[in-house]
Amino acid sequence: MKKYIISAFAGLALMTSCVDLDLNPLSEGSSENWFSTEQEVTLALNALYNPALWKVECNRFFNTDRWTDDWNQRTQLYDWVGGTIDSGWSQGAAEWTNGYKGIARANTILYSLEKAAGEISEEKMAQYAGEAKFFRASFYTYLITAFGDVPFYTEYITLDQAYEMGRIDREVILQQIYADYDEAARVLPESYTGVERVTKGAALAMKARAALYMSDWKTCAEAAKACMDLGVYSLHPDFGEFFLSKTKTSPELIFALPCSNELGIMLYDAAGVNSFYIRNAGGTSVAQPSWELFFAFTCTDGLNVEDSPLYDPANPFANRDPRLAATTVEFGSAFLDYIYDELAYRIVKKMSGIAIAAILASPATSSANAPAVAVLTQALGAGTIASAEALLSAEATDNVAIMNRATWGTLKNIPVTSGQNVGDVFDGLPVVFTDALPSFASASANAAYMIVGDLKGVTANFPNGDDIKYKFDDTTEMTSDVIRVLGKLFGAIGVTAPFRFTQVKKAA
Predict the structure, then answer these.
(1) What does the alpha-carbon distance between residue 76 and residue 95 come to, in Å, rounded to a whole number?
(2) 59-75 average pLDDT score
(3) DSSP assignment, residue 432?
(4) If DSSP states are collapsed to H, E and C, what string results for 441-453?
(5) Cα 259 to Cα 83: distance, rounded to the nearest angstrom
(6) Which residues, at least 6 apart from 145, have a Cβ–Cβ distance to it below 8 Å?
(7) Which of 154, 189, 458, 460 could bridge 469 with an S-S bond, Cβ 3.0-4.6 Å?
(8) CB atoms < 10 A from the CB of 444, how many?
(9) Does some domain include residue 29?
(10) What CA–CA distance (Å, rounded) separates 438 from 127?
(11) For residue range 262-276, what is the model confidence (pLDDT) as tens digits?
């Protein structure tokens, strides 16, 4: 059947071949007679802004920050982190291909611009050529930085010619990169009205970066100073605001790929954004700051944490560079309308896991070999949490209530007095939600529906003792999660310290 269908379409194509079809898309520069108007030249240049050519910079899966120690992905071990990169690494091949794809497009524009002579002013012709040279220099910079000596050409070549090319000394290529950036800086404007495109400052800044990569300190310093001397750029006045979505433009931005219908750049990626959001806010929280990033911020005396007497391990955000709190979520601070308390996240790898089971299984009477928990059999009411806390050891200090979310929904709406509910009374107590406990409504008689206890009472169940030991959990999910470098602590797999927890059971 498939053969007949294909034949039918083939026959249809032959029957309609006499119709004059325009096979050149109006939005892409791809035909031999292209570049005859300013619109066509502009559309061809727009293709150089395509994020697919800039994956090393803006693709969420392969961006440069993920190649550093600034953050990590909890659910995946990447090749560069795992040390498994070899000659067959797919990302390396992609960067090579994308680099030369961009170079080919830039060279084609430079080769074909003369077709628009007389249709475009000489000033605009020079500007468009400078824009193409900016991109060519940028793509060659990526290639020589990653691969060293590479094939090099600045003219329009055929595919056969490309296959015959060998490698050229990267120092030779670097000089052409400098020349391209210099020409771009000479002819490009300092700014635009309307759609943002590459500027004089962008050319100077990228030249400085290329020189930095190649350890050419003199050229780097000169290009960077020339960029600063333009007087166009400055640090954003609010560090914490700079990285928010509401900051569309800023004097700190030198070169960016702007989201633009005209340029065909739409970078919204819900999956990528959600990687950094807490689960309560609809995210996945799989991407988190690293310890290295956390300790990169100095103390207020300008010293690193290992050298500063101001650093307090028990209060690691105190006396620190204020940009730290703008980069990670500080304990007790608000983010996405959630208040983070480190105590509420010390307890288990997932509240449906082993720690809940250990608390529920712990005996109600103390013995030499097993810590005990208190047991309260009581219906859900205004005094339930207070009664449970009263049964805890006097040493319990970091108390938390653990329950099904439906239970809390019922509890906080129970009237206490006129105009007051349970939720108003106990808002100061951290509440952790878990599906490991049944809701009060669904719990059977004498079944535990709530746990109230001391988070410092979680102990590790190791053969040689019962010392408190916390482990980083970077592989499993939590019901409630945090975006902060100190998060994901859980109480191993052990039982509790004596009378640091109270099981609240449903009355018969």
Answers:
(1) 21
(2) 68
(3) E
(4) CCCCCCCEEEEEE
(5) 34
(6) 210, 213, 214
(7) 460
(8) 10
(9) yes
(10) 68
(11) 666 655 555 566 777
Q: Is the dihedral of CA 134, 135, 140, 146 positive or negative?
A: positive
- Residues of the domain holding 68: 24-242
CA dihedral 464→466→470→475, nearest 10 degrees, is: 60
> Do the domain assignments include residue 255?
no
Task: Output the domain CATH number for residue 138.
Answer: 1.25.40.390
Q: Which residues pair with 249 in a beta bridge?
A: none
Whether 503 and 375 have beta carbons less than 8 Å apart is answered as yes
In this prediction, residues 482-492 reach a mean pLDDT of 36
Distances (CA, A) of 231 to 225, 237, 458: 10, 16, 57
Residue reference for tokens 């310093």: 221
Per-residue pLDDT tens for 183-206? 999 999 999 887 789 999 999 999
Give the number of domains in the chain: 3
* Token pair 């102990």 in the structure block, residue: 459
**Which residue bears the tokens 């004089």?**
200
Task: Look at residues 500, 497, 472 and name the one whose alpha carbon lies nearest to residue 402.
Answer: 500
> Which of 240, 252, 260, 148 is closest to 205 using CA atoms?
252
472 sits in which H/E element: strand 471-472
Q: Which DSSP category does 115 fall into?
A: G
CA distance 103 to 133: 9
Element (H, E) at 9: helix 2-15
Q: Does 40 lie in the same domain as 88?
A: yes
Q: 217-229 and 170-187 helices cross at what angle (nearest 10)? A: 10
pLDDT higher than 60, residue 5: no
Do 218 and 280 share a domain, yes or no? no
